[in-house]
Amino acid sequence: MFIATESIPSSFRGFTLIMPAISVGNVGQLATDLIISTLGMPRVGYIYTDCLIPMAGNNPYPTCADDAAELSTNAEVYCLPGVKLAVLQIRAPFVQRKSKKFRKLIVSWIKSTGFDRTVVLSSSHAYQRDDQQLLGTPLRYLLSPVLEQEAGTQLNSLEWKAMERVSAFPGISDSEKRLYIPGGGITKGLYTDGCSEGIKMAVLLIFCSEGDNIPDAFALVNYLNDWLHLVDKPSQMSTQWRVPGSWKLLFGSGIPPAIF
């Protein structure tokens, strides 16, 4: 499943893995872009799978004209061995009915590789929030039981809000609660699989709507940074993260003057 293209560490044991879920507004993927671009993370391999729609393109994080034409694929792995950080970026949606298979493959890869913990960056539809979720920050988190034992106290000190369970039968009975992440793609399934497999997994998500989701991506990556301290906090948020060159075409290349 993982194909190395460059020299990689002999083992990913002790590493933190950060990955996005394909969710509303693509916020997790945008936040992941900011991490890779800012930290200058080199690509070390890719995920080979038939679960994602095939795609290829130019290097989304060019630093000069020479590396701008490097080939980029739908699921690539970046790594910084010095800080024991790996990032999986996903750039394509799932092939129909293969999201569950992809979840199982990712969980298997995480277990076999020996990552110390996994952080999933995601989002959920703002308009489907429960009443209790309308209050305060739009940012939420989830921890698997094994990670709760290790990091629960630290996150409590940050005064973060855990993702609320909502009524399974709203308006009828409040006795049964469930985890509900509308628009979150594989987030809930991946988290559930991680819990059942004993993986140290955290989900960080933001309630948002489709549109210009760049501010949501900055909010989510800053939320993550409060915990993992990937970069130092500057006085101005805009200078904290390096926007990748690929974002210049995030909303297309503009209207061609020749059509007028």
Range of strand content: 15-25%
Could you say which overall geometry the principal axes of the C-alpha atoms support? globular
Q: Tell how many strands the DSSP assignment holds.
A: 12
Helix content: 25-40%
Radius of gyration: 19 Å
* Helix-strand string: EEHEEEEEHEEHEEHEH
Stretches where pLDDT is under 50 for at least 5 consecutive residues are: none
How many angstroms does the end-to-end distance come to?
49 Å
Largest sheet: 8 strands, mixed
Order of strands in the sheet with the most strands?
1-3-6-7-2-8-12-9
Average pLDDT, all residues: 90
Number of helices: 5
Write the layout of secondary structure elements.
Blueprint: E1 2-4, E2 16-20, H1 27-39, E3 43-47, E4 56-58, E5 71-73, E6 75-80, E7 85-90, H2 99-113, E8 117-125, E9 139-143, H3 145-157, E10 166-169, E11 173-178, H4 187-196, E12 201-208, H5 214-228
Parallel strand pairs: 2-7, 2-8, 8-12
Antiparallel strand pairs: 1-3, 3-6, 4-5, 6-7, 9-12, 10-11
Helix pairs in contact: 1-5, 2-4
Describe the structure.
- Helix 1 crosses helix 5 and helix 2 (99-113) packs across helix 4 (187-196).
- The longest helix is centred in the middle third of the chain and has 15 residues, at 99-113.
- The model has no long low-confidence stretch (mean pLDDT 90).
- The strands form three sheets. The chain has an eight-stranded mixed sheet, sandwiched between helices. It has a two-stranded antiparallel sheet with strand order 4-5.
- It starts with a strand and ends in a 32-residue tail after the last helix.
- It has helices at residues 27-39, 99-113, 145-157, 187-196, 214-228, and strands at residues 2-4, 16-20, 43-47, 56-58, 71-73, 75-80, 85-90, 117-125, 139-143, 166-169, 173-178, 201-208.
- With 260 residues, it is α/β, with parallel strands linked by helices.
- The protein contains five helices and twelve strands.
